[in-house]
Each structure stands twice: as C-alpha cells, then as structure tokens.
Amino acid sequence: MFSRGFVVCSILALATVAQGGVQVQLVPTPNQPGGYAINQVVQVDVKLAQSPGGSDNRLRMVEFDLQDTNVLLTVALPLTHDRGTPTIGDDIFFWSFSSLPNCVTSPSFCSFNHFVDDDLVAGPVDTRLNILSIAFRALTVDNTSQLFLPLSGAPLTVGKLQVTMPPLQGDFTLNLMNSDAPTDATGLDLGARVDFGFDPHTIWRSHGTIEDPTPDVSGGTYTFKVCNVLPCPGDVVPPPTSSNPAFTARGILIVPPNGTLWRSAGNVVRLTFPAALPGIPAAGQLLIQEMLAGGVAGPDLSASFAFTLESGNTVLRIRDGLTATPTATLLHRKWYVIRNTGGWTGVANFETQFPSQVGDAQGNNNVLGADVLTINGALTCISNCGDQNRKDINGDGRVLGADVLVANGKITSLPVAKPSGW
Fold first, then answer.
1. Where are the extended beta strands (E) located within 298-404?
2. What does the alpha-carbon distance between residue 291 and residue 168 come to, in Å, rounded to a whole number?
3. Angle at 388 (CA atoms; ends 399, 347), nearest 5 degrees
4. How far apart are the first and last CA of the chain?
C-alpha cells in the first residue's frame, strides 16, 4: 500500500507487536447521540489504540484510505503543522504530534522527521485518491519525535478531520478502512495500515489489503445520522439510491470543501448526487448566476461552462470555459449560485452557493500575505497539478510564479459577505 520506497536498514531490534492488533477510533466533537443537523460541521479525532497486554510500540508508518467514505460527506483537514520554512506558516495537514513534547514546542522538528502526504486528492507525490499517509523517516529510534502507542491500550490522537454534514437527511458513513479492498477488482493494495519498528516489510499491521486480508487493524468507521429536526425522531430514511434520476433529491457543492473558488480563470465545481443522472444539462437547464442584493439573481452564465459526468454519472463536473484554455467567467469577490429550478428535466430542484475569492490559497475566504507565501512555498508542480490544487491561482494546471503574482495583486481582500436576501 505504501509505495514510495523507503530504503531502510533494520539496524535495531523490532518491537513486539501487541496481541490483537490496533484499533482505529473516530471520536466526533460534538458527540451528539441524537443525530446531527443538516450542514453541521463536526471535528473528528482519529485515534489509534493497541489491545492491552502487548508491548510499547513506536509507529513507523500509518495510512488511511477514505475511498469508501460517503461522497455526500465533505471532508477537510483542519490540523496543521509548520514544515519549518520561516514565515510560511503551518502547512502539514491532518497529523497530530500532540503526544511528543518536542513537537508541540517546535512543530517543524517533527515535520523534518516525518514524510507526510496530506492530500485528499491525487497530487504530484501520491497519485492515489483520498489517501492520508505519514512515515517516520529516520534510521534510528527517536523517543522525542516518533509517535508512541503504549502497551496500556490508551488511545493516541494521530490526526483530525473536519466533516461537513450533507444538506439532506440520512445515514452517512465516514470510512477510513476501505473494508472492501480484499475483493477490489483492481488488485490495488488498499486499506488502513499501521507499521511498527524500522523495517516496514518485517513487522506491519494492515486491514483489508491484498497482501494481508486479516483484520489486524479494526474500527475506523463512524456513521452520522443527519436530520432536519434534532433529536432525530427514530429511524431516518437514507438518501435515495434508485438509478431513476427522478429520485435525485439534491446536488451539493463537494469541492472546494472550504466553500470558496480561488482561481482567476478555469474554476471547477463538482456536484454530487445520490443517484445516476440522466445526462449533462444543456445550457439554460442548469442555472449559474451571480447573487445580487435583495435576493435577485443575475443573468444565467451556464453557456460559458463545460459539463462532464464522473463516478458512474453521479458527479457533475462544471468547468469555467468550453475549451482547455481557462476562462474567467466567475469574477473576484462575487457570490454565485448553481441551481435547478425545474429546467433540468428528471432531476429534482436544488441550490448551492459560493463566493469567488481569487488568490484564496488557504481556503479561509480572504487573500492576505499568508496566501502568497503558501503559493510561493509550493512552486514544485509544473504540470498536471489537478483541478482542485488551491495553489494554482490562474487555472493553467501548474503552480508557478505567475500564480504568486495574481494572488499578490489581490491583497488585501477581506471575506466576501453574502448579498442580502439570500
């Protein structure tokens, strides 16, 4: 599963693996037994715990696979750690080094000692989708910077996720285990994985993989019950699953997870539906409009966008521009709405809204010097950087100096307020 090729000599004795393996625990905050509200944002702590009775173990590598997480859950990575570059700020996402005193006082200390792939989407380092990875890359044990699982079975927080509930009722599962991987038709080595020691090929624990189908790692799933009114009144009807597009209840803005579009041209939005769509909408069937004061919408802009279907026709990809050349239909510091008001036959009415904030590399609805520094510190992708790379500001599929210049020209741009009446 972990295919980046660490060349490591097994120069120390390997720790004894705890009997019974490792459990992955997902702990939501707030913890609401009565269910969660539509569009509610929930922080989920990801913890590891050994079965008591084994030995203390230090983690060599950990991976999680979100491939089987419900697509209607929007997952973001809120926790950050500084890689050590002055003035760049915190830029390693998801992983928690809170058990290590030296890392708490100097986050860059542990950042230098670990290889971290923090992307939810495929990137230039790890081309697999929805994989979260960390590996300790030193050649000797380090009690101050290596994550530690105690023999007592006490859980260790290794990361944090920010999960936004969908805008519809139902049961939605966050899954870090990819438990169907043993029967995966592609034969990929997928699943959650925890390695101990210093030779990842000698002692390791995995779950649901082609190499090791034995569930040495367990847990790793949490199902959110989402309701219109809390507490949830008994059982909730799950989202429609019929292939009949008439049962498509809603489209929601899955990307970007932070709710802003950040490009000066070539922005991409994906709408995910719980059932297959009848086809792509023609111009005017799906409306894309600027949101104006008083609840008024501007002219329909959909004729300037290219539509394609993905994921078994359940995802509609909407790109600004009809050709490969990026187009700037969506303007800086404007709010837009995408909606069906009955013109898209066979698909139920829905609506999603978002602001355009050109240069918002950090996804916090403003453009400041920190955004420019974030882009400047990532000038490593020269081609095929993905249509959701927040550091690609001009939409040309690369992260270069031109992106820095565009973002720098937008400083200072404060948060964009939604127009009145919406």
1. 305-310, 315-320, 334-340, 350-356
2. 23
3. 155
4. 46
Asked if 40 and 227 touch (Cβ cutoff 8 Å), the reply is: no
Enumerate the β-bridge partners of residue 335: 355
Distance, in Å, from the CA atom of 382 to the CA atom of 136, rounded to the nearest integer, reads 28
pLDDT in tens, 23-52: 889 999 988 888 999 889 999 999 988 877
CA distances from 266 to 86, 319, 402 (A): 31, 6, 15
Alpha-carbon gap, residue 350 to 348, rounded angstroms: 6
Count of Cβ atoms closer than 10 Å to residue 19 Cβ:
11
- Which residues have C-beta within 8 Å of that of residue 147, sequence separation ≥ 6? 58, 59, 62, 97, 99, 100, 134, 136, 156, 158
CA 81 from chain centre, in angstroms, equals 17
Domains and CATH numbers, the chain: 22-227 (2.60.40), 245-408 (2.60.40.1220)
pTM above 0.85, yes or no: no
Tens digit of each residue's pLDDT (9 = 90 or more) over 375-414: 988 887 888 888 888 899 999 999 999 999 999 999 999 9
Which amino acid is it at 216?
D
